[in-house]
Specification:
This protein has 112 residues and is mainly beta. The chain has no helices and eleven strands.
Length: 112
């Protein structure tokens, strides 16, 4: 079955950077789009970014456009989210998603 394991979260100061990773298994990774979502305490889960199976096609939420970059390595079956210029409002649990399946999430906290 589909398994997604996120990593790379942590505590970072405003203006800092983090790179999240999502390791995938249980399906033909290179065939499918991959997405990142996030959920802050007391808020609904929101879409952050998507990358299609063709690595050059990406899309972003307006709130992260220009600061976050989604990428994938099909050989490693991994999708990444490079997050730069982080803001306190980026604090959330970040989830990897594909084909309706979700990982367990990784916590990102942006605070001084």
């Amino acid at each position: 079955q589909v398994q997604l394991v996120e990593s790379g979260g942590g505590l970072v100061q405003p203006g800092g950077s983090l790179r999240l990773s999502c390791a995938a298994s249980g399906f033909t990774f290179s065939y499918y789009a991959m997405s990142w979502y996030r959920q802050a305490p007391g808020k609904e889960r929101e879409w952050v970014a998507t990358i299609l199976n063709t690595e050059s096609s990406t899309s972003y939420a307006d709130s992260v456009k220009g600061r976050f970059t989604i990428s994938r390595d099909n050989a490693k079956r991994t999708v990444y989210l490079q997050m730069n210029s982080l803001k306190p409002e980026d604090t959330a649990a970040y989830y990897c998603e594909t084909r309706g399946s979700w990982g367990q999430g990784t916590q990102v906290t942006v605070s001084s």
